[in-house]
Amino acid sequence: MRTNADMLKLILETAEAMDEVRTVTLHGSRVSGAPEDRWMDYDVAYYVTEMGALQQETAWLAPFGDRLIMQRPELSTLAEPHGLGWFPILMQFADGSRIDLTLVPVKLTENYLQQGEPGRMLLDKDGLLQRLSLQQEPGFAVVLPTAAEYADCCNEFWWVSPYVVKGLARGQLLYALEHISILRKEYRRMLSWKAAAEADGPVYAGKQGDGLEAIVPELEWQMLQRTYARAEPEKIAGLLPALWQAFSTASNETAGLLGFPYRVEDRLQSWLHERLQE
């Protein structure tokens, strides 16, 4: 596997040899201070004056090495384009290295940098970044919700809960588990909001909530882990009442911290418990 120094040298030399590339920044875990391991990607942005040929052609990517697989999400028929104007090229190499390269039109540089992810300048041919600032703190701080966002999170959690019960009743385990993943997402969102509301400064939940372990009480973290239930009816049925109670507690406490109205879903919870026992 190529060393960090080798990869950064290659990324820079490739950019320096291309007139279209004017600026290069490094982002992600290699900038945020995360512990380094062999799975760490190189999240790189090339700020370019011309996009068309670079999007369609792949020969210019050859210097990066022997690719096992590549993905260009904006060209995929299975996903909607994000429409933001930049173009990701994701590459896994045979030696284990991986580059997530994003092509950004020079005119959209400021928009791209305003996403809030920490970054480090690697190359600036025209002094573009001297006029702009790179985020240096860890990225993706939890943003406190509006009252409407809080209410929508609660509504989504309770709206989806009957689908899990229905899946269990019908013996559709994959259906039930698919909807538990939605409950998990909203519970995770609520926990991150509560942690942010309780904190004196910014908090970081991390990708997929991995950072929550450091910022929420142990019992809440354990409850979140339990939501990754096995595909067994008894396991899922045993999880649900505890998850409903945990979400009720977290959402009530969050409402109190933020001064939002809290809607008690007693009737729905009673109905859910009855259906679960049938």
TrEMBL record:
Stored InterPro entries: Aminoglycoside_adenylylTfrase, NT_sf
Protein name (Swiss-Prot/TrEMBL): Aminoglycoside 6-adenylyltransferase
Taxonomic lineage: Bacteria, Bacillati, Bacillota, Bacilli, Bacillales
